[in-house]
Specification:
- This protein is α/β, with parallel strands linked by helices and about 240 residues long.
- It folds into two domains: about 180 residues, 3-Layer(bba) Sandwich (FAD/NAD(P)-binding domain), CATH 3.50.50.60; about 35 residues, no CATH class.
- The chain is built from eight helices and eleven strands.
- A six-stranded mixed sheet has the order 6-2-1-9-8-7. The protein has a three-stranded antiparallel sheet with strand order 3-5-4. A two-stranded antiparallel ribbon has the order 10-11.
- The radius of gyration is 20 Å and the shape is globular.
- The model has no long low-confidence stretch (mean pLDDT about 90).
């Protein structure tokens, strides 16, 4: 039996497995894909914006919806702790506009590689191509994950780090929501926040703006009658 089983090989799962391993726990990390850190490797335009160094109050103010729920999490592990965490892994960081923190290498894969090296140093067992079908919550000290092939694995604690539903091709398909609900958590209605703008306009279809970062702009959307129905501003 493992002390901790982490489901999901994204940034949350990798960091959770490292944290447990540093506490001398016997850790298993399982992921349904064939490669760990896939979404992390393409984040920040391939550069990986690991965190933001602005004051906590300002960071929370920019969280869509009610970001105040993050105060309790930040009281334990905040953005400065994230910076320290990666620098201790050997990832040198630099601060850019609006407090965004990137690796000096400008290469997201260097962040992934640092996390994988640490997992190897801690002897965390990794199983890829191992989709989880179900979780059986049995007692306070024993739970079981059921893999798609029917095999089972026992653990004293389960960490669900499967991500949301934002980038399906990287494995983020919302697998963890029914498991969290089964464990007794309340799942609110899911809805997209940061999503692409789609249009039949030629300049959109031809991807003329792809890769451009624009500041201090406004976008007006007109309805079929030519009246403004939506105004979006970026600063």
């Amino acid at each position: 039996m493992y002390d901790v089983i982490v489901i999901g090989g994204g940034p949350a799962g990798l960091m959770a497995a490292i944290a447990a391993g540093e506490k001398k726990a016997n850790v298993l990390l399982v992921d349904k894909g064939n490669k760990l850190g896939r979404k992390l490797a393409i984040s920040g335009g391939g550069r990986c914006n690991v965190t933001n160094r602005r004051p906590i109050e300002e960071v929370i103010r920019h969280i869509p919806g009610n970001g105040r729920f993050l105060y309790s999490a930040f009281s334990i592990f905040n953005n400065e702790d994230i910076i320290t965490f990666f620098e201790q892994l050997g990832v040198q960081l630099k601060e850019e506009d609006h407090g965004r923190m990137f690796p000096v290498s400008d290469n997201a894969q260097s962040v992934v590689n640092a996390l994988l090296r640490r997992l190897n140093e801690l002897k965390v067992e990794i199983r890829t191509n191992s989709p989880v079908k179900d979780i059986l919550f049995e007692t306070d000290h024993k739970h079981t994950i059921v893999l798609a092939d029917g095999s089972t694995i026992d653990g004293r604690a389960i960490v669900i780090a499967t991500g949301g539903k934002s980038v399906p091709h990287t494995g983020s398909t919302g697998d963890g929501y029914p498991w969290a609900k089964k464990a007794g958590h309340t799942i609110t209605e899911l809805y997209p926040t940061e999503v692409p703008v789609t249009s039949d306009e030629p300049f959109i279809q031809e991807k003329r703006l792809q890769g451009l970062s624009l500041k201090d702009i406004a976008l007006s959307v007109l309805n079929p009658k030519g009246k403004k129905s939506l105004l979006i501003k970026w600063t």
